[in-house]
Structures are given as structure tokens and as C-alpha cells.
């Protein structure tokens, strides 16, 4: 076969393959994940929510997924590919996909995008995120109550507002439980690298830390904590395999209701770009069962805190709170506004390290 | 910061790359450039984990990992030594195969917990204050890795077989003319390199993390390749290189945990800067230390 005939028949084949998809006219929903769909944490949870969404709609939609997509230029290629293959709505489920999503969305005005945990939106790009800092308040409180060495640790991924909010919220509430508590922060520059996460956990333990909060996606920190007899928390997923110890509780992301809601909007033709930020009260952030040797009164306080946050009676960032340099941020009784929280780039008073650039 | 705990952590963190690097050094000494270390390590990690979980014995896990990765490396050996395929391309292919294969095999082992590996206290020495907790209270694989380095050093320096291996790597035409079986020697070296990489990978999944997750070696194989160059193909250099690379990783995490405001990025890239510096120095001296036939295919009729 000559090359030209080969190309022609390939083009014909593509056209034939494409035709039925258009004819069926079933909305095609795409998902892009930063890690493997079995990482036990963040990506797996998005994937499971996507599967629930697919089960909800059955044959009324078509779903395509792509896992382990690096943030950056590669993401743009993958998104372009998905848009070209006829996707109607694409969920990009990691912070680093923000600019690629905006860039690709500009080229495909008819395709709708939903970007997780970012802050940029466009005519056809929504941003959605969960108020994880509400959950961090509760795990931070438990960490402060359970440490015997008065040292707790936090494994950070990248110094973005999402993670800095988590650090501040954890620290403020650890201090509520234990005024003498100190917090060490270790930055890894990755969302998923089990060996590095394990090494970081070990480094924190070597420094005398006995409770570790992780903001990375694997269960490696819990594995190391279990060996050392220290405590930790499930992150993104319940990680109940590690209960009752070392896992004391967990922050669970509940994406499925949001996904079902948004896909329904596409089917109904009512989809509009928005910037959604939901918390414990909306059901997007779940708190896993409190397990392990947590005393009853601590458990009761933590559960009360959860109820108050859910009802809106309590905001995790309620003054008086000073910034790290000692300058006032929130006055007595003042509550942080969403704008400041969304772009948070400073530590609160009492944290000793500096935020890397 | 407690130096005792720091040194102990460094030894654990350096062991996987030390094992992989010493194996790769032998392969390269025989004149073969196998870039598939990452693929063999991840294969060793998953096979070792699976075997240890199924049998309940970490020792069986390590043995299976060494064997599995070595068998995989033989596919590289067959392609490059008998079919004379390009070593760089085949090595890269081996990495991709290893990453894919391990994800497939490991799918059912996600979230499973491995049997623990006990610490082996060296009688007498472990009781010495400071030194004991630093060096003599580790799991047996740490000692195995150190013994392996010593064994490779002695083998290359003092044995006839070691001399033949070096001859094959330096000039395969001459070695062939002298009647040595170039291809057979190289296949043996490749097998050994694969086994070492497998042990290194299993150390990550059974001791350092310890669990199985896809892609968990996260570039350790490439660091092992850099260490061989850094060491100018000397066993002692491999030892120093592995502890330097492993040490910097642990040190930067510990400095952060201790609250020291250090430029983490600078510290993280320092081993690579040193590697480049070493390369510049050895090439300026005119003695690069690389085996003469490194990466070249051999065919008896040529």
C-alpha cells in the first residue's frame, strides 16, 4: 500500500470511528488525574467519585479518564487530546493543571472545564475546591491533644495557598488543645513520591515529632508512623486500613455529589462557569471516624468543633490571630474573608519556619 | 539535630541506590551500558513485595526480587549481546517495560502490608555508645550491601575472573583474541547487575517505605547511574557517592524538620553539581576512568 493510500484510509477510518459518537450525542465527560488511580489517596478518591457519577448516569453519558498526567506542558497536550476526541466536560483534578486548563479552554470555547483547587476561571472554566482547612482544624486539634513531646509535624507538597491554609489551620487548633505545641514543616515539592514521603516522616520522627499531618497523597507516612508507634491521619481518603492506630482520624474528600451535579447541569444545558468552595457543611469535606487512644473529652470537643463548623457557628479562622511577624491579622471575633484565604501566603504567629519561594 | 539518628537514617536511605549502583558498576566494567536500572529496581520492588507478602518472609522476598530482576535483565542481555541491538535504546526500553510490568503485577498488592524486617544488632559492636546505634543496629540488608561492595572490590582487584571482566570491558577485541568468551562474561555481568538492582528495589518496598505503590522507586535508578559516573567506576567511589546522594536527601529533610532556613533546592541539587564537577576534573586530568569498550556492541566476526 502506498503511503498516500494508507493515509487516506486512516483518515477515512477516523471519520467512520468519529461519526457514531456524534450520532449518539451522549455527553462525554473527561477526568485527568495527577497520580495513579490506585494511589490510596487524592487521585483514587477523584477516580472513585467519577465512577460513582458514571454509575448514577449509566449509559446517559460516556466517561474517559487519564491517570498519572504530569502538571505542566504534558497536561496541555492531554487536555487538547481529550477536547479533540469530543469531550464535552473535562475535570482537571490537581492544582498544577490550572494554567494548562485555562490555555486549552481558550482554544476550545465549546468544551467546558472544571478545575479543582485553583482560583482562575473563564467563560467555560469553573473552579471548584473544598474547604479542607475546616477538616485540618479538627485533625490539628487532635494532633495537639495527642502529642506527648509537644512537637507535631506537617508534610507539605508545594507552598500554595491551599497547603498554607492547611498548615495555619492545623497549627492554630493544635495550639487550642496544647498551648506549648511546636510544629515542624517539611516541603517535598511533589504530591506523590512514597519513598520521599517515608523519608520525610522519618526525618520528623528523628526530630522528636510524634504526630504527623500529611498533605501528600500516599499512605507511606502512615506506614512509617505505624512502625514507630507514632500517630497520623488519613489524607484525601479515609485510609481506614491504618485504623485504629496510627491513623487517628482522616479528612475525606467527597467529590461525587459535585460531579453528579455538574454533569447533570451539562445534560440540562444549564452549566455556567462558577467558583465553588464547599466545606463540611455542604458535605464536600468529611471527617473519618476518630479511632485509637483518643480520650473521650478530646473526642467530644473535636466532634463539637465539627458540628459547629458544619452549622456555620464557628469559623476556623476567627480572631484574634496575628501573622507570623507579630502584626495583627484578625481582631477579636473577626472572621477571615474568602478572598484573603484563597490567596493565603503567610504563616500565623507561632510558626517558626519560613515559606519557601 | 541528633547526629546518631541522622547517620542511621542516611544508611537506610542510601542502601537502595548503593545496591543498584554497585551492580551497574560491574555491568559497565564489563563494557555494557544498561540504562534500565530504574525498570529493574521497580520490578524487584514489586516481586520482592509480592513474594514477601505471600510467603511471610522478607528474606524470600529479597531472593525473589534479585532473581526476578536478574531474569528481566537477561532480556536486555539477549537483545544487546546476541541480537546486537543499541544498548541505550534497549536500556531505556527496559525501564519502560519494568514500570509497566510492575504496575500490572502490583495492582492486587496495593494497600497490603509487608512483613517487617527485624534489626540485626551486631554482637558487641552494637553496644558501643554513639557508634553502635549509628552503624551496628540495622537490618541485615544494610550489611549485605556493604559486604557486596567489599566483595566486588576484592573480586575486581584480586581475582583472575575480575581481571578478565575488566579486560572484556576495556577492549573486547583483544579479550576475544586472547580466547575469552566476551558475550558470556557480559551476560553474567548483566545478570549480576539485574540481581543487585532487584535487591535495591525490594529494599524500598520492604524496608524504607514499606508498602507497594506504583512508580515508587521514583527515579532512584537514574541516581544509581549518576553515582557510577561520579565514582569513576570504582567500588569505593560508589560507596561514597551513594552515601552522599542518600545523605543529602535525608539531611535536607532533617534540616527542614529542625526548622533551619536552608535553601532546600540548592541542597537537593548539590550531588548532581558535584557529579558534574567530578566529570570536569577527571576529563581535565585526561583520565576519564570509563571502560574503553563501554556501550559498544561486540561481534566475533568483526
From TrEMBL, chain A:
Domain ABC transporter substrate-binding protein PnrA-like: 28-293
GO cellular component: plasma membrane
Claim: Signal is one of the keywords in the record: yes
Stored Pfam families: Bmp
Transmembrane segments: none
Signal peptide limits: 1-23
UniProt cross-references to InterPro entries, sorted A to Z: ABC-Purine-Binding (IPR052910), Peripla_BP_I (IPR028082), PnrA-like (IPR003760)
Keywords noted in UniProt: Signal
Signal found in the keyword field: yes
PANTHER family: ABC TRANSPORTER SUBSTRATE-BINDING PROTEIN
Protein's recorded name: Nucleoside-binding protein
TrEMBL record, chain B:
Transmembrane segments: 6-27, 32-53, 59-79, 91-109, 140-156, 188-206, 269-287
Entry membrane topology: Multi-pass membrane protein
Assigned GO CC terms: plasma membrane
Entry's localization field: Cell membrane
UniProt name for this protein: Nucleoside ABC transporter membrane protein
Superkingdom, taxonomy of origin: Bacteria
A GO molecular-function annotation: transmembrane transporter activity
Species, as recorded: Alloyangia pacifica
InterPro entries listed in its UniProt record: ABC_transp_permease
